[in-house]
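FOLDING PROBLEM:
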Amino acid sequence: MANDLHGYLNVLKPPGWTSHDVVARLRRLSGQRRIGHTGTLDPAAVGVLPIALGRATRTTSSNTWDRKLYWGDVRFGAATDTDDATGRVIATGSTAGLNLDACTAALRGLAGDIQQRPPAYSAVHVDGHRAYADARRGRTDKLPARSVRVDAIRVVAWQAPVLTLLIQCRSGTYIRSIARDLGAAMGCPSHLGALVRLRVGPFDIREAIGLEALGAIAEAAAWDRVVWPVDVAAMDLEAIIVGRERAADFLHGRSWIETGPSTADESEGSNDGGEQKSVRVYDEDGGFLGLVEKVESAWQPRLAIPTGDPIAVQASRL
């Protein structure tokens, strides 16, 4: 059993599995009670699914996991009630007039900061419950549009009636909605034919581990070979190192006045009344303690995540 595991797994989700299915399987394999993911991946999709273990579950909402990269096939000629290939066809149309130049031009309107309507079958909360629960009961009201960020869309291939795209976006973006809305812009029904999540934050599909391999790792009790440390969820933040006394202050939630030079860049701090900036905190032995914020001349504890000795990982991964 591995109830003392704290960190992340870069899991390769197989097709046909829900994100909840993967969490349940890993809970059995690891014996870890506290376990979760950083954001759902559609059952039909494959790819990177970061899984948090132990105290790492407190960092699943970190901005580190906000950036995602997808490979998707948009199939023109039919729309479905789920906006992907698993759904029931609700409209069809001719693809004869489609061409790559027109598709590329239409994609420009789907990039940047946009308003996007989530699919009816989605995990979006509506009146306190999930949208897919209403859809399964036959309620097909269109969901309200939300603000999302699509950083870039690049055409990879065009073999009519399928357009293959690379899409970099932020959390909350639905690739199914992009496929549906592209068809609407082209005047031809469409849906997402296939989806692969290539990257989430620092986790890449080339290093992702399948469930079968994780089963073998569980049998060998070799979790230390594959678990990333908790602070992988905060590696984009600057860091400070504190002595024993300050570490005790931090773990007890006590702020302290900075008396010497800081290793963190104060130029982006909050002294000018701007947004607070979190900083990683480590003890003198290199153990990750959590996050603090600079408030005027004092360090204010924000999130304590003491994990003891950091889990060893290959230096090339950090």
